[in-house]
Specification:
Layout (H helix, E strand, L loop, with lengths): L3 H39 L7 H29 L1 H21 L3 H29 L5 H38 L7 H8 L4 H11 L7 H4 L3 H34 L4 H29 L1 H21 L4 H29 L5 H28 L4 H20 L6 H10 L10
Helix pairs in contact: 1-2, 1-4, 1-5, 1-9, 2-3, 2-4, 2-13, 3-4, 3-5, 3-6, 4-5, 4-13, 5-10, 5-12, 9-10, 9-12, 9-13, 9-14, 10-11, 10-12, 11-12, 11-14, 12-13
């Protein structure tokens, strides 16, 4: 007979694994669009401009603006497991329709609908992992899980290099529906529900009053933190998705062939993957606020250097890797910070609202990049603008209120690695 500890560890590993692969496919489905943009622009039946391609790229991200807060709220009310299964099923079906789109309008519409599902994945899986992870592994396991986005992005870039010429953009989009026949049936069979959610549901069944999770995250100093978290997410997502959508085309404009330009997209996301792990270790030691704000300062400096240093393959490789690493590390720590700040009753709602508002930045990033490219602004102009945004991200995180008595219970209940008094 298995011990309770063995059963708990098995559940934790299952949750982290399921969450990792959900985020992986979210990353693939979002980033594959950027990898497919050159093929879309070359598709004679549609004759898209860069601005039109940017607007279509923004469609999924606008969907996430609505999907993230709605799914976070639903996860706090109805449970993380149900939302996980429902969201994966929905966005997989939408990706099938994306691959079959016959007009640019259809492509944009189905990408928007898929985005409703994409947006709900992070609030749901972050809540699951935080609530299952052992006390001294919460930030680390959350960062490992979130690294799935980078793996999915690397997969999208790598597959585009190898297969885009053979299967076209439709085949690349269709691959994003794979969770429907893999993760969904396995989750129905194996994925456990959050013990925190089950406990709160049991209390509610006994007549305890359930608080309104949406209202609680906008009260007092906690409301100020919610606004700042949303602002930081806005800036971070603008950078991540602006770069992932337009980096291949920008590197082409700097003189690289398409194959080499796509390799920079892969490199950016390799850096994101490495940075997420490294950032978790630093956050456990020095605090989440200090690390998250500090790495975005490094992002800003690296973007400035990419704009002003004469382009060579070696310098560009190093700078793109550092930009990816600091973006990945900063965003992973930022999301852990948000999840740690709130009580279990409102955790998924808080992550959903802050990331949902932040997704406006994700939607604006590709659109702004397309407009800048249309006006003749190349690599240097784009990354200079992003360097200012990286600095704004760092400042916004730095001014998040310190843990107060009204919210310190959320940290205690989350059993975050660091003692309450040492949190940033």
């Amino acid at each position: 007979m298995k011990s309770p500890t063995a059963t708990t560890l098995r559940s934790t590993y299952l949750v982290v694994a399921f969450s990792f692969f959900a985020v992986l496919f979210e990353g693939y489905d979002l980033i594959v669009y950027g990898a497919a943009v050159p093929a879309l622009l070359a598709y004679p039946n549609w004759a898209l401009t860069a601005a039109q391609a940017g607007a279509i790229g923004a469609a999924a991200l606008f969907g996430m603006v609505f999907g993230a807060p709605a799914s976070g709220w639903l996860a706090d009310i109805y449970g993380r497991r149900k939302l996980y299964i429902g969201l994966l099923t929905f966005f997989s079906l939408m990706m099938i329709l994306v691959s079959l789109a016959q007009t640019p309008t259809q492509l944009g519409l189905f990408r928007f609908l898929a985005g409703l599902g994409f947006g709900g994945i992070p609030p749901t899986v972050i809540a699951l992992v935080i609530e299952f992870a052992p006390a001294r592994r919460k930030v680390l396991l959350n960062s490992i899980m979130l690294s799935g986005f980078g793996v999915g992005a690397i997969l999208a870039g790598s597959m585009s290099i190898l297969l885009l010429g053979h299967f076209g953009f439709r085949g690349m989009f269709a691959f994003g529906a794979l969770p429907l026949v893999t993760l969904v049936p396995l989750a129905v069979w194996l994925l456990p529900e959050s013990p925190e959610f089950l406990r709160k549901s049991a209390e509610h069944a006994l007549g305890h009053v359930r608080s309104n999770p949406l209202r609680s995250i906008f009260r007092g100093q906690v409301g100020i933190a919610t606004g700042l978290f949303a602002g930081a997410n806005f800036f971070a997502f603008l950078m991540v998705f602006g770069l992932n959508t337009w980096l291949p085309l920008l590197m082409q404009s700097a003189g690289y062939a398409l194959g080499d330009a796509l390799k920079f997209l892969v490199l950016l996301n390799v850096g994101t993957l490495v940075g997420g792990m490294f950032g978790a270790g630093l956050a456990d030691r020095f605090g989440m606020r200090l690390v998250a704000s500090g790495v975005f300062v490094i992002t800003s400096i690296s973007l400035v250097l990419l704009a002003i240093i004469p382009a060579t393959t070696l310098s560009n490789v190093l700078l793109v890797f550092v930009i990816g690493a600091t973006l990945g590390g900063g965003q992973a720590v930022l999301w852990s910070y948000v999840a740690a700040f709130y009580t279990p009753e409102s955790r998924a709602t808080a992550v959903g609202v802050s990331s949902g508002i932040g997704r406006l930045g994700a939607a604006i990033g590709p659109a702004v990049g397309g407009l800048l490219i249309n006006t003749g602004v190349g690599l240097a102009g784009n990354v200079t603008m992003l360097s200012v945004i990286a600095l704004l991200t760092a400042v916004t995180i730095f001014f998040v209120p310190r843990m107060l008595s009204s919210s310190s219970t959320s940290i205690a209940s989350s059993t975050i690695i660091l003692p309450v008094q040492s949190l940033p």
